[in-house]
Amino acid sequence: MLPVKLGVGRLKDYEGLVEPSLRTRVTSAAERLQGLRVVHINATPFGGGVAEILRSLVPMMNDLGLDASWCVLDHDEAFFDVTKKLHNGLQGKPTSLSADEVARYWRHNEETARQIQELGGRPDILILHDAQVLPVARFLPAERRMIWHCHVDLTTPDETVRDLVEPLTHLYSRCIVSMPDYASPGMPPGRVSVFPPAIDVFTAKNQWLSLELTRSLVADFGIDLGRPLVTQVSRFDPWKDPWGVIDAYRLVKREVPVLQLALAGALMAQDDPEGIAVLEDVRRYAGDDPDIHVLADKELTTDRFENAVRVNALQRLSSVVLQKSVREGFGLTVTEAMWKGRPVIGGDCGGIRAQIWDGDNGYLVSDVGACAERLLYLLMNPPEAQRLGARARDTVRQRFLMPQLLADYLSLFEEMLGLPSRGEEVVERTAA
Predict the structure, then answer these.
(1) 330-346 pLDDT tens trace
(2) 0.90 cut: is pTM over it?
(3) Which residues contact 393 (CB under 8 A, 6 or more apart)?
(4) Are 188 and 271 found together in one domain?
(5) Are residues 143 and 225 in the same domain?
(6) How many CA atoms lie within 13 A of 360 on its CB side?
(7) 338 close to 396: Cβ distance less than 8 angstroms
(8) Do residues 388 and 407 share a domain?
(9) Domain span at 405
(10) Which end of the chain has fewer surrounding CB within 10 Å, N or C?
């Protein structure tokens, strides 16, 4: 298990972006939690939404006087093969696990628990993220305060995986899910909280960029700045349906021959062994169309900061941003594009529904034909695209910025420690 080196996060940077009442709620809770030792553990330091959240959330906790840290698992390819199966099974893919795979899952988590025991000083609260580390609680003393934070869509899990996972959730003081629908009946009653994720607008992926820099970065990919561009940013994962994105693009291109498509996947997460195979298949599916830009490791760089800036630029310069997922725990790439004021078309699933209200601040679609229809409409109607983009940005400002997630966590810590509530106003983050 490896500690992650972190930068600085500051609540005061959000002055003027979030409501004063939210900042007061955060600072007053932090005063009551000074010195609280919190340790977050997840699978990987990069390549997915959980890592992006923790890279901002943990420094902000420290900025407020908590003692927060973040550790990730040692790389183990065989173990990640198993946990990818679990991830897919939790999101509804029929899954079978051999006895050897289940034994490997237990062994790796037992070793992780041993390493936690060796951490200098016992954490007051231990937070385990996603299924990779769920069994850790099985190998630690029951009196520990532990939280399991699940970031995936749990509405239709495979029964084999559900039966493996649900009993383990009862070992935790609290479980966190991103949407109310994800709280399955098999989870511990009365111990499930709903925390939609959030973005940090001051990271390289979300910070403001000048138009000149934005255009220069996008042109570096060979994209024609004089023609419309539609982009999907996501890992190369079957749940993100990159093939459906290409199909929708091809339908629209019959009417808009100058259209370009970018599929940007950045660097692969180390816990996602399927990524390379999906990327290769998407390249084959794209064929020799010069207007389809499949952007991954070799098109980007080994510098993650630079890659994040390039993705930022792609989103900002896109006429429309897609996230045609068929399962989505939340979809932070949707949040990112909405923050940049772009019109977004998202798959009608999971956490995307918590962000996009169809026709109000974006569009929800369930198939290729609907996606193509909405895409063509937005390309042909720039005023409507601009209206949706403005509404989208305001939605993120009100509900999905990092101080809100910080406030949710601090309130939960107070509850777990038995501290009295001060009755601060709580914003409903998943309702239109």
Answers:
(1) 999 999 999 999 999 99
(2) yes
(3) 338, 339, 340, 341
(4) no
(5) no
(6) 10
(7) yes
(8) no
(9) 2-198+401-417
(10) C
